[in-house]
């Protein structure tokens, strides 16, 4: 019984209007909007003809029609020379029960058509961009319900056209952003290559090769994060940290130890966390454990209830003055954790070395169970 009621409802004007509005809501182009109006308006009103007219400056362009006989598809008329123009200029619906009796109708345009009565309503009433016309083959006065149905269809078409415009604008903006991103990616890669070449040309060979190796490592960090962001692919936390600290290690000195389960991060979070690791390592190189040969850094992380906690501990470095003022790097680290990662951070400059603990939630998405299985495993 329920299915019968739904079918009967779909055959009523209200049901037909609802279906038409649903199709208009999903329209992706102006052609989609025009086609939906063309195929639904005539059945909605039970008229003998329908036309969709677009405003083009001072002209009315009859884009499409569905009628028992030819109307004016493809033709253009001055706004002042047709009833569709009058409706758009005056921003109101026009009812013409008998075209022979209305002075606004240019009768010579109608004498070779079947049309004897007209209902015309503007699309986007406050600033019309189009009009929808309904036509009858005999004199006829549409009911208030029929007028309301056509006006409702016009309102839905106006909303659909605005959505199409926004989609088009956003698509264009995305394309332009992608072009800028590709250009920036190309420039960054060229910059890495240029600096690496300069390092080898201007420094003694051992130093030049060491600096060039570190620049290559930085380039690999960029490729990892950029590739993940481009493809929206998850990035392995351990791999991220390994690449971030690689520029600070040599064959003779492995200053970092990494301990923790397999965790996959979304690109935006990986980018922010990568910057945090980079800042911590830079600070350690300037003032902390990495500034002396014996110094080392322990990095450990754990995952519990979708919350990642990462520890950074510097050992065997030079004594640290605990009352030292926070550096700009420390301020950047705090902003990255609190604003980009929406997390918490405890950054302590203990005399034995810098200690940092940061915690933030991660998005597991459809891999929630996979994270649970991996969280207790360490590579």
Keywords:
379 residues, alpha+beta, Beta-Lactamase, Heat Shock Protein 90, six-stranded antiparallel β-sheet, five-stranded mixed β-sheet, 13 strands, 49% helix, 21% strand, elongated, disordered N terminus, disordered C terminus
Can you walk me through this structure?
The protein is of the alpha+beta class. The protein folds into two domains: 2-168, Beta-Lactamase; 231-375, Heat Shock Protein 90 (2-Layer Sandwich). Helices cover 49% and strands 21% of the residues. The protein contains eleven helices and 13 strands. The chain has helices at 2-11, 13-25, 30-45, 83-90, 107-110, 144-202, 205-231, 237-245, 267-286, 328-340, 368-375, and strands at 49-56, 59-67, 76-78, 94-96, 117-123, 130-136, 235-236, 256-259, 264-265, 296-304, 307-315, 344-350, 353-361. The protein has a six-stranded antiparallel β-sheet with strand order 3-2-1-6-5-4, with helices on both faces. A five-stranded mixed β-sheet has the order 8-10-11-13-12, with helices on one face. Strands 7-9 form a two-stranded antiparallel ribbon. Strand 1 (49-56) and strand 2 (59-67) form a beta hairpin. Helix 8 packs parallel to helix 9 (267-286).
């Amino acid at each position: 019984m329920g299915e019968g009621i739904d079918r009967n409802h779909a055959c009523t004007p209200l049901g037909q209007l609802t279906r038409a509005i649903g199709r208009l809501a999903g329209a992706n182009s102006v052609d989609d909007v025009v086609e939906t109006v063309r195929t639904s308006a005539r059945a909605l009103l039970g008229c003998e003809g329908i036309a969709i007219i677009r405003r083009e400056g001072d002209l009315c362009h009859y884009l499409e029609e569905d009628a028992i006989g030819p109307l004016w598809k493809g033709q253009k008329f001055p706004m002042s020379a047709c009833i569709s123009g009058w409706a758009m200029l005056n921003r109101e619906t026009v009812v013409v029960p008998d075209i022979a009796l209305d002075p606004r109708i240019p009768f010579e345009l109608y004498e070779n058509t079947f049309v004897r009565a007209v209902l015309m309503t503007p699309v986007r009433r406050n600033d019309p961009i189009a009009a929808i016309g309904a036509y009858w083959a005999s004199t006829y006065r549409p009911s208030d319900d029929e007028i309301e149905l056509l006006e409702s269809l016009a309102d839905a078409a106006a909303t659909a056209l605005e959505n199409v415009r926004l989609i088009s604008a956003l698509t264009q903006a995305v394309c332009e952003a992608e072009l800028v991103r590709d250009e920036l990616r190309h420039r960054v890669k060229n910059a890495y290559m240029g600096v690496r070449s300069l390092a080898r040309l201007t420094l003694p060979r051992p130093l030049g090769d060491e600096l060039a190796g570190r620049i290559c490592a930085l380039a690999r960090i960029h490729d990892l994060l950029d590739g993940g962001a481009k493809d929206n692919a998850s990035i392995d936390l351990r791999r991220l940290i390994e690449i971030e600290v690689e520029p600070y290690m040599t064959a003779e000195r492995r200053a970092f130890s990494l301990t923790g389960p397999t965790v996959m991060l979304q690109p935006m979070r990986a980018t922010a966390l990568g910057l945090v690791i980079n800042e911590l390592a830079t600070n350690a190189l300037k003032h902390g454990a990495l500034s002396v040969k014996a110094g080392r850094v322990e990095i450990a992380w754990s995952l519990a209830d979708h919350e990642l906690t990462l520890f950074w501990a510097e050992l065997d470095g030079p004594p640290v003055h605990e009352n030292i003022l926070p550096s700009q790097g420390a301020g950047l680290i705090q902003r990255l954790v609190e604003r980009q990662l929406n997390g918490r951070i405890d950054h302590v400059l203990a005399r034995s070395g810098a200690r940092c603990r940061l915690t933030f939630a991660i998005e597991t998405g459809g891999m929630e169970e996979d994270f649970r299985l991996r969280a207790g495993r360490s590579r």
